[in-house]
Every structure is written in C-alpha cells, then in structure tokens.
Design brief:
Layout: E1 2-9, H1 17-26, E2 35-40, E3 44-50, E4 63-64, E5 70-78, H2 81-90, H3 100-111, E6 121-129, E7 134-139, E8 148-151, E9 155-159, H4 162-165, H5 176-185, E10 198-200, E11 205-209, E12 214-218, H6 234-251, E13 259-262, H7 267-279, E14 285-291, H8 299-308, E15 312-318, H9 321-334, H10 343-354, E16 359-361, H11 366-369, H12 374-385, H13 390-402, H14 413-423, H15 428-436, H16 441-447, H17 450-453, H18 462-468, H19 476-502, E17 507-509, H20 515-521, H21 537-543, H22 549-553, H23 563-568, H24 572-578, H25 581-584, H26 592-604, H27 610-626
Parallel strand pairs: 13-14, 13-16, 14-15, 16-17
Antiparallel strand pairs: 1-3, 1-9, 2-3, 4-5, 5-6, 6-7, 7-11, 8-9, 8-10, 11-12
Helix pairs in contact: 2-3, 6-7, 6-21, 9-27, 10-19, 12-15, 14-15, 18-19
C-alpha cells in the first residue's frame, strides 16, 4: 500500500523530472510514511511512498525484472500473488523479494498487457517496458485504489492524488461542468475532476502509451446477462454467497502487520466480522463510531456483534465541535469537493483504528450488490405511485408533501417524502440519483449566478447515460445496482474510504468487492435481492445462521452524522461565516439570495436544508484552499 506518481515524456524528459517527481511524492507522505523510492531514465520518472504491509524488509519500490528492462510501482495489494509467484518460478523467473509488486514485472514479461486479467486485488499500477518503449497505467476493476492523470503536449503526469499532479507544471483551472456535477451528485463522477484537464482513470481501464499513440482500453466490466441461473435454488445460492464471501475475507487476511474490522453494526460489516472470526488465527479487533443523537447512533448494534464474536472492541462518540476542527483539515486530503458528510466519522474511526492496526476490513459494496439502499424500496413504491393519475399526484400529493414540517431526525418521513416527490417524474435510473443527490434540476437553476449557467453543459445526467450504455442488465433493479457500483460506490464511498484511511496511514480492504464475488453476485436474480420492500433478502438468509437476530431485522441507518441539527444549533455561527457574502463573493459563482434563503429557512426550522447547505460549505473550503 502506498502512493505512486510519475511522469512519462513523449519526447524524453529533462534532468528536472526526477526532482519534480520527488516533490510530487513529498505531498503524499501520509499514504506511505515508511519508505520512498525513485526510478528515472530520461524517458520516465517513477516515484512512490510506501506503507509497509507485505515483505517489510525487501519490499522497496520501484521494482524490476531480472534484466531491469521492466519497472513497476504499485499502490494496493495483489491477494493471489503467492500462487502467481510459484507459477512464474516454475517458468524460470528469478525473484529477489517476496513482495506482490515484483510478481507484476515477471507476469508482464509472460503475458504482456493481459497480465492484469490474472490479478486479484485492489491496485493502481504504473509499468515501464524499456525494450518496447511501452508505458502502462492500470486501475483495478472496481476503483478501490485511485489513479489520476494529466496529459500535455510533452508529458503524461500521473498520481494517486491530485495534489501531487499540482506540483508539476499544471496551471490550476476550474472545470465548471465538474463543479456543476458535484452539486448534482455530491461527488464528481469519473473520469472528470474539479480541475480542468486532470482526469481519473476509470476502474477496469488501462492507459497504454507507445511511441506512436496513447490508448485508453477497458479490460473488465460487470456482466449481468451471462450465466444468470434463475433455476438455482435459494439454498444453493445462499451456500455460494457464504462460501465465496468467506474465501474473499480469508484472502484479505494476508499481511505481515495487525488487522482489524470497521464494525458499524449494520448487515455488511457484521457479516465481515462473523466470517473473519471463522478464518482469523488471532482475536479480532473491531472499531465503531457513534453519536449522542439516538437516531444516528449505532453503537448498541455494534456492541451486540462484538460481544457475539468476543472481539477486542473500541468505540468513539463524535460531537459537533469536531466538524469545526476537521473540515478544513480533511479538505487537504480530499483534493476535490466531496459532500458525503460521513468523511468526518470515517476519518475519526481510521484515526482510532490506526492506534491498534495497520490494516482494517470494511463492508463497502454489500448494498450495491444486494439492493440494500432505501432507494431500491423507493423504486418499488414508485412503480405503484406512477399509476396514480397525474392530476392527483401533482395537484394534491405534492402540495401536501411540501407542507410537511421539517424534521431533524435521520431519514425522517418528511425527508423521504420530499426526496421521493422530487424524483418521481423521471425515469427510474434518473430518479435514483435525484433521490441520492443534493441539487435537483429545479434547485440547480436557482443556485448559480446567471453568467455561470452559460458555462455549463446542458446534460446534468450524462455520467448516468454513459454507464447505462455499457450495462448488460435486463431488469431495472440490476441496472440500478450497476449504476450504484459505477457512480456512488466508485466516486463517493471508495474515494471517502481511501482518502480518510490513508490520511491516517491505514489500509482498508473490502471483501465484498473481490471481482469474482462481484461477478457471481451479478448472476443472482434481482427478485432474490429485493423481495417486495425487503432489501438484501438473499444475503440476509445466507448469513442468518451466523449473525444475531437483532442485526438481521434492524432498519438500515447508514454511516451519517446529525448535520441538520448541528447546523441549526452548535454550528450556526460556523456555517453563517463560511457562506457569508464576503466569502462567496471571492468567486461569485452562486446566487447569494438563494443561499441566504436556504440559511434562513433552515435556521428557522421551516425546512431541513442540510443536504443543500453541506455541499456549499465543502465547496467553499475547497475553493479557499486550492484555488485562492
């Protein structure tokens, strides 16, 4: 696990390239505090910062093959590297280390660009083949590890983090479409970033550069059409889920340092804890975050699971004052705006865990693979609601919902009802993201200043249609799951988890996102995942013999914080200052009257505008830090 960066020169590199690479590495020390390494030859310059997990003594990067014609740097872990290593030794390859990075160099010698299809893991890889003058950048199938790049006429610059690319000769410019999409989705969908010209390499893709051309190539995607077996019994599928997920957990225990689990008390993290307790050779360490506000607090459920499996359990209660302290600090690690407020508890739990372990397992991916979100329930309700005559829906129901009093409770009826109505008139795939996101089309119209509207793309939802065009799913629930994998999971949850954990030099592993498990989950019929309004039906049945009944029957809460309450009370002065005319006039992007009205209605309790105010707060901190 580390941070990687470097420069490829289309016509060669000058002597300053290695110093620039070292500067790029210097802003990513948090990703790899244990070691650093460099390679430069006049055509490429490679750099890395290392967090030592496997082969603590001889795992120094960059690494090469026997004749030093192939050079590799890796961010991540290759879980099947021991098997690959043995196969390569049998073919005559000589190894000087026991690390997974060296395996990549020899595997490339054998299989060329197809080497990536043999890897099981989470990874971002840069590889340089001196013999053929071929340079490759590769990102793992699900996007667990980040990889950004910027291409000019002379160079291709890449890094695990955007702040590293900003150390090169890139001139900072705002991408207005990226900014606009941030306020729609609460994150910026790949390949776009908030910086014009800087891109994210899409998961399951690779960039191959030769003397004659640069190509971006897909090498993997989720397939829903192939191998779907609707005739398999529930019992057979349940057994497959259990055995495959247990094997995935077992693979992710490979480490030369201590491991733990992020335990929320929800279905997914509880399942990981249960399976880890079966295959781990030592006592499990678990970590949980809670709040004083009961509708947000999950510590009780986490404690039930910790007691059931007799883990070494640690807890922390988050309070509002930490928001003031942490938001300015966390922006430095995010690099671009991300309005997922759970970045705060994610940072705190990572900080807590790092005092005890270097690696932790987490439950990301379970909701996307098994239709676990409330938005899937909303889709089921919407199918019936759309049969109601429009005159009743628009003339009566909408007016009643708009008059519902504001609630500060987590996922209150009022919040859900207003969200539901805001997306009901769109196709299901668009409704899903309006229900998830912050600013819908109507709110966006009021948000930006008139001159900014002229700079924005007309298609707010282009990222959704891009991924829909690649989907093989034949039913709506499967398409929604595919889109959640490709957007919300990829560009929100995994970004949050990576940045906040690496800010604390902690590695997070996600068993649900083993690509073989994802491929299998895609073959399970959607009616076994979402049964009427029951989410994760088949996963719950598969894990029922191993989990406490309280976990199987509880309502989903989600990893969120009581922002609406805090903004109205303890954080009122903080928010008023951040969104003051003095601050916002620095750029003039927004309609000040709209923001003043949002603040007024929220402070008076007329509406809970937490989901509209928080993106503005995050954006303003980002702008002050990166663009001023």
């Amino acid at each position: 696990m580390c941070g990687i960066c470097g420069i490829y020169g289309f016509n060669g590199l000058g002597p300053e390239a290695e110093n620039i690479t070292k500067k790029m590495c210097s802003v990513m020390v948090h990703r790899g505090p244990d070691d650093e390494g460099y390679y430069s030859d006049g055509k490429v310059s490679l750099g890395m910062r290392r967090l030592s997990i496997i082969d603590l003594v001889t795992g120094h990067q960059p690494m090469s093959n026997e004749d030093k014609s192939v050079w590799v740097i890796l961010n991540g872990e290759i879980y099947n590297f021991p098997e690959l290593r043995e196969q390569l030794i049998q073919k005559g390859h000589t190894f000087t280390t026991k690390s997974d990075t060296e395996v990549i160099a020899h595997l490339y010698e054998e299989e060329g660009e197809d080497f990536v299809s043999r890897l099981n893991g989470m990874f971002a890889i840069a590889l340089w083949d001196k013999k053929t003058n071929t340079f490759c950048l590769v990102r793992d199938r699900l996007g667990i590890k980040p990889l950004h790049y910027w291409q000019s006429d002379k160079t291709l610059v890449f890094s695990s983090e955007i702040k590293s690319i900003l150390q090169a000769d890139y001139q900072r410019k705002l991408d207005f479409d990226g900014m606009s999409r941030f306020f729609t989705f609460e994150y910026i969908p790949a390949p776009q970033t908030i910086f014009r010209g800087i891109k994210k390499l899409l998961p399951g893709h690779m960039i191959v550069v030769t003397d004659t051309k640069t190509q971006i190539k897909p090498y993997w995607d989720v397939s829903h059409a192939a191998d779907t077996d609707s005739n398999a019994s529930e019992e057979t599928i349940m057994e497959e889920i259990y055995e495959r997920l247990k094997e995935s957990v077992k693979k992710r225990l490979i480490s030369d340092v201590p491991l733990g689990v992020f335990l929320s008390g929800g279905m997914d993290s509880s399942s990981i804890t249960a399976l880890m307790s079966e295959v781990a050779v030592s006592k499990i360490k678990t970590f949980s975050i809670g709040f004083k506000e009961e509708t947000f607090n999950e510590l009780g459920y986490a404690k039930i699971v910790a007691d059931r499996f007799q883990t070494d359990h640690q807890e922390f209660v988050v309070e509002s004052n930490l928001v003031r302290e942490l938001v300015p600090k966390l922006i430095e690690y995010l690099d671009e705006p991300l309005a997922d407020a759970s970045i705060i508890p994610t940072y705190i739990i990572s900080n807590l865990a790092r005092k005890y372990v270097t690696v932790a397992l987490a439950g990301e991916g379970g909701d996307e693979l098994f239709a676990g979100y409330d938005t899937y329930k909303a889709y089921q309700v919407a199918r019936l609601y759309r049969r109601v005559p429009k005159i009743i829906r628009n003339g009566i129901v909408k007016n009643i919902v708009r008059m519902l009093p504001a609630s500060g409770k987590r996922l209150s009826f009022e919040f859900k009802a207003k969200k539901f109505i805001s997306g009901i008139d769109y196709p299901p795939e668009i409704s899903n993201f309006i229900w998830w996101g912050a600013y819908g089309p109507a709110e966006k119209e009021k948000l930006f200043a008139p001159d900014i509207h002229e700079k924005l793309s007309e298609d707010l939802f282009a990222p959704i249609f891009y991924h829909l065009n690649n989907s093989t799913a034949e039913d709506t629930v499967s398409r929604l799951g595919y889109l959640d994998l490709k957007l919300y999971l990829q560009d929100d949850l995994l970004v949050k988890t990576d940045r906040m954990s690496m800010a604390n030099s902690l590695e997070i592993r996600v068993p649900f996102l083993d690509h073989t498990f994802v491929e299998y989950a895609a073959t399970i019929p959607s009616f076994l995942k979402l049964k009427r309004l029951k989410t994760k039906h088949i996963l719950k049945k598969a894990m029922a013999p191993y989990l406490p009944p309280e976990i199987l029957t509880r309502k989903k809460i989600g990893f969120d914080i009581p922002l609406g309450i805090w903004i109205r009370n303890e954080l009122k002065d903080f928010v008023t200052d951040v969104l003051s005319p003095t601050n916002l006039n620095k750029h003039g992007f927004f309609n000040q009257a709209t923001i003043d009205n949002l603040l007024k209605e929220h402070f008076q309790g007329a509406h809970n505008h937490r989901q509209l105010l928080w993106p503005l707060i995050i954006f303003q901190f980002w702008y002050n830090h990166y663009m001023e």
